[in-house]
Amino acid sequence: MLLVCDDEGLLGKELLAIDGCKMSSNAAKEWSGTFQEFSEKHQKIKRQIKHHLREHQREDQATEDRDARQQRAEQAIETLNKAADKIEQFLKEAEPRKGQGKRKSEVKSNITDNESGKMTTSKGTIQGFNGVATVDKKHQIVVDAQAFGEGQEHHTLEPVLESIKDRFNRLEISADIYKTGMIVTVDTGFANESNMKYLHENSSNGYIPDNQFRSRDPKFTDQKTKYGKRKQHLRKTKLAELILASEFNFDPVNQICVCPAGNQISHRDEREDGNGNTKVYFEGRLSQCKNCDIKHQCMKNPESANHRKGSGRQVSFILENKRAPNYTDWMKHRVDSAKGKQIYSHRMSVVEPVFGNIGTNKGLNRFSLRGKEKVTGQWQLFCLVHNIEKLCNYGQLAA
């Protein structure tokens, strides 16, 4: 299909836009959790089964409505047994699922479809896949489509770019499409130090802004004042009214931090973040934050300080003397330049209409299959239909 589109003159090969579209899949969000959470749920179900068995034995001695009650109890016990067996079998056969970040910590598995992931979207938390599409600017042809079962997009950029390179080379469209000056614009969700390093080392003409690039642009200075924040009416505490970390008294020499209430809060960690910055982390003790008079101005969720599994106010500071220039700084200069702003302004108008066409006009609002391979096939099929429509409308094939 890509070769046909190129023959028809639909590929500009000047600018590619990459973004992801998160959609629910054929998997139950309720069956997500870590192995520890599954074990606790399994024990809870076992306790419920014992309770129903005791009730069943007690009702055997009663005469009034005995048959109806026994039937309900037997049905409840059967349902709970099936759920317990399902969890037990999963814990025996599967392995804990690891995240794709620097620290390979455990992420939530899913019993229904363990290749899907729990993702946060603008419409809430879903259990699904992230359909990543790469779109050529000239006629919005999808040149690559893949589905990933993780909410984080950072690790997906390199395999997507390598797939595009191999496909263009295999079809003899270009031996190395990135060496021809092809511009690649990527959404902020893909921004991290390793991706910036990958683009730099491969001499790719890519643009990935960090999530603060708007705040550095003078044109967006009063955007929040003029238009407000998204879903502001749903916020428990307006972030603009919270006491900022700059109000805390931080001593970088002695690694001490004193909160605005005058309490010295606990030093938790010192580590390098995804952008290569050395950060030091502090957290208020529960005994301090629980009884603090200004906790409603200091904490986004003040109620978290009221129970022992919660947490106090957390702040972090960059240790400037340990910070060295990194690849994120290199990308910031590219994106913040006049040329970079002009180039990146095309990204949304290239890729977002494709998602709108597939979701609204073609009716794909959720994946109906399970497993990464099948979901990727479904995502590619809808992208193929989108490309065929472009061929019908704009193709110039000679008779």
Automatic annotation (TrEMBL):
Top-level taxon: Bacteria
Q: Which organism is it from?
A: Litoribacillus peritrichatus
Composition bias type Polar residues, residue spans: 108-124
**The protein's name in its UniProt record:** Transposase DDE domain-containing protein
Q: Can you give the residue ranges of the Transposase DDE domain?
A: 258-392
Composition-biased stretches, type Basic and acidic residues, lie in 56-72, 92-107
**Region feature (Disordered):** 51-73, 92-124
